[in-house]
Description:
Blueprint lengths: L7 H40 L1 H20 L2 H6 L4 H38 L2 H15 L10 H8 L3 H20 L7
Helix pairs in contact: 1-7, 2-4, 4-5, 4-7, 5-7, 6-7
Amino acid sequence: MEEKIMNYEDAVKLGIREGIRYIKDQEYHKTKKRYDRRLRNTRLLLKHYRSLIAHNKISENTTIRIYEKNAIDELDDLDAVDDEEQYVQALSKTKIRTLLIIVHINKALNYYEAICKSDGKAKERRYQIIRYLYIDEVEDDIMPSYEQVAEHFNYNVRTIGRDVRAAIEDLSILFFGIDGIKL
Length: 183
């Protein structure tokens, strides 16, 4: 058996090829991870949409009450002024961020509704399922199960699951732009 010895140029070419393959592989995994994170975040935003709306209402009332109180009386009860200022600032930032997210979600959902209505019954069904599952008001703030959704729309639970996954992929693009697309 003859042993083949690689010359220096071939070894360098092989090293470069393997290095490029490694970099491409790393980029692919980073992109896939970012895409998976966007899908997860889309699902979380939808899942907690009702809570975000409630938070916005609560924080609006709390912020108004804080500013309506007599500052002198309140400051007498506090050890440090900075704590209240930090609390108000943190609350304001959270309120603004939450409101921005809600507005963005609502715009994306309105756009998605228009797309779905123009793309046929299957896509329109996806929108209706997402709306029923995550957006519409529910009793006792309990999100309906897939079984309840299937019963409501008179579809199979697996159909509901497929529609939810497909809708979340679509909405991920509307929520996150290019980062929501699997490249």
